[in-house]
Amino acid sequence: MGLAERRAAERFKNEDYPQWATRIEEAAGFAVPVEVFWDELAVNDYADSYAEFFPQVYFQPLVDALAGVTIDQLGRDALRAGLTRIIIRNTGDYYSDSGFSFTDGTLTIDHRPDTNVAYGEERAESLRKLLESAL
């Protein structure tokens, strides 16, 4: 990762992510810890696209999935009791929902930030189903 990528990731983390963190908390109904592996998300040659890619690949689908789970009190209670942490990363191995897991209270979203960007609704639905099946 070059300087341009590091700068773009840092800018997103400091300027855009705080609003996303608030939206995640609002959708979940509680302050769930979110660990973002920014150095992994910052892939080469896409620094100018992070502001578009990160929300579409990671944050909007997550907010939508959490909101889908918490549509009623039963969902809110189940999420609060079962979700203890969220990890967002890019190991480079996944470009679909095969990189999503929910184990021991930890929801992991492992997805390339530059692949299948436009499939946010499908990611949200997969995340919602994953959570609901495990809660």
In short:
This protein has five helices and four strands; from the N terminus they run H-E-H-H-H-E-E-E-H.
Q: Which regions contain 5 or more consecutive residues with pLDDT less than 50?
A: none
**Largest sheet strand order:** 1-2-4-3
Percent of residues in β-strands = 5-15%
What's the average pLDDT?
Answer: 96
Number of helices: 5
For this structure, the quaternary state is: single chain
How would you characterize the overall build of this protein?
By secondary structure, the protein is of the alpha/beta class. The chain contains five helices and four strands; from the N terminus they run αβαααβββα. The chain has a four-stranded mixed sheet. A hairpin with a 2-residue loop joins β3 (100-103) and β4. α1 runs parallel beside α3 and α3 packs parallel to α5 (120-134). The mean pLDDT is 96.
Secondary structure topology:
Blueprint: H1 3-28, E1 34-36, H2 38-41, H3 50-69, H4 73-82, E2 85-89, E3 100-103, E4 106-110, H5 120-134
Parallel strand pairs: 1-2, 2-4
Antiparallel strand pairs: 3-4
Helix pairs in contact: 1-3, 3-5
Features:
135 residues; alpha/beta; four-stranded mixed sheet; 5 helices; 4 strands
